[in-house]
Amino acid sequence: MQPKKEQWSTKIGFILSSAGAAIGLGAIWKFPYMTGMNGGGAFFLLFIAFTVIIGLPILIAEFIIGRGAQKEAVTAYQKLAPKTGWSFIGHWGVVGAFLLMSFYSVVGGWVLIYSAISIPGLIISDTANYADLFATITGNPLITLIGHLLFILINIMVVSFGIKDGIEKTSKVLMPLLFIFFIILVIRSLTFEGAMEGLRFFLQPDFSKLNAENVLYALGQSFFSLAVGISVMVTYSSYLKKDVSLPMSAGSVSIMNIFVSLLAGLAIFPVVFAFGLEPAEGPGLLFIVLPEAFAQMPFGEIFLSLFLLLFLFAVLTSSFSMLEIITAAFTEKKQRSRKKTAFISGILVFIAGIPAALSSSSLADFTIFGKTVFDATDFLVSNIMLPGGCLFIALFIGYKMDKTLIKQEFSYGNQLSNGIYNVWLQNMRWLVPITIIIVFLGSIGII
């Protein structure tokens, strides 16, 4: 007899868990440095536009596919389009989640290390050079590999417990705490002398700084931060009851994602300009700016420790979703043990992530198309696999999936009009795929 499928216990649990899958490294770590490297306010404005016009409709689509099929990513497409090749979208998603987690867990390891050394007060000091500290940590192969491994082991443990007892319980407690601490950090950052220059950089668009590549990065960032394009949300929504409104849930996740990205920018850029730091610092920006900001606060070391721990949990809620899609794909299809599958999947991700973990040390001189393994994997996932997956999902919803089922899933749990449904569907059929294709072709110089 097939075991009963797990479900989220509450609507808010699903929304916070989905937000947790989206709000992690994408909004807090990657968004500030991508904004700093790609034009400041103009990039932020594009990011918002792409999130609302492209990302949100795709998030609704992934929710519809998952709950409509009541299956994880690979099996969902097989059930909704049997005896066709559309199941490749699910396989694309599993591969994408695997690659994404292989470098995501490296950064998660950095956060874990920073959290650990902040507790005894080993980060903030009067003579500390935070850029040098970051370079020392990421440049040590043993430290980065240990952090990478420990981060993976935490993921294995939580995902092994499943949806209700693992992911949902964790997200319902930790996500609200993260919001509170972020607001505290923003208030302090805005009081620094010179903070207004950072605000202007972040909130005042200068479109002369944009090019086709920046636009692609903004599109990729909107997908990365919403966790769409690799069918993570297909898997999450497959555990969802029918009384939950998918458009409203997707809207809540998108709003929270934009809000946290805004908070991240408001927390980071005033400090960057107040202390004469470089906004285009790259992946280390957050780890250099946060200690600088907290060092100026009373009890700064304690607040830094608490914030890093909450940040760690936000990162973990995102990585849970990636390991979940990999685990669910093999657990449901082959009826394997969840705990055993999570362990094997996690160890394989650890092995695959070793080159990325060593990109700042032993493999610093090894490049792929001029990029380190870490940067090359990030580029492949963020700017090729995520937009590609979103394009395929849009085409599947627009031209293949049964429209009666789509409308039913769109309408459950809400009173939205047929007009809103029709606008969303036409958006998926035309605007979403055309925009993705134009942005991608523009970035490689074809148009």
Question: Which features would summarize this protein structure in a list?
Answer:
447 residues, globular, mainly alpha, Hydantoin permease
Topology record:
Layout: H1 11-22, H2 25-37, H3 41-69, H4 73-80, H5 88-118, H6 130-138, H7 141-160, H8 163-189, H9 195-203, H10 212-226, H11 232-237, H12 246-274, H13 285-294, H14 300-334, H15 338-357, H16 373-399, H17 403-411, H18 418-443
GO cellular component, one term: membrane
Pfam families: SNF
Subcellular location: Membrane
What does this protein structure show overall?
By secondary structure, the protein is an all-alpha fold. It has one domain: Hydantoin permease. The chain contains 18 helices and no strands. It has helices at residues 11-22, 25-37, 41-69, 73-80, 88-118, 130-138, 141-160, 163-189, 195-203, 212-226, 232-237, 246-274, 285-294, 300-334, 338-357, 373-399, 403-411, 418-443. α5 crosses α15 (338-357) and α10 (212-226) crosses α16. The termini are far apart. The model has no long low-confidence stretch (mean pLDDT 85).
Just give the CATH class.
Answer: Mainly Alpha
Which structural category do the helix and sheet elements fall into? mainly alpha
Mean pLDDT: 85
> What sequence of helices (H) and strands (E) makes up the elements?
HHHHHHHHHHHHHHHHHH
**What is the strand tally?**
0
The fraction of residues assigned to DSSP E strands is under 5%
- Intertermini distance: 55 Å
**Counting H and I runs of at least 4 residues, what is the number of helices?**
18
**Helical proportion, percent range:** over 70%
CATH topology: Hydantoin permease
Shape: globular
Number of domains: 1
Membrane topology: Multi-pass membrane protein
GO molecular function, one term: symporter activity
Subcellular location: Membrane
Pfam family, one: SNF
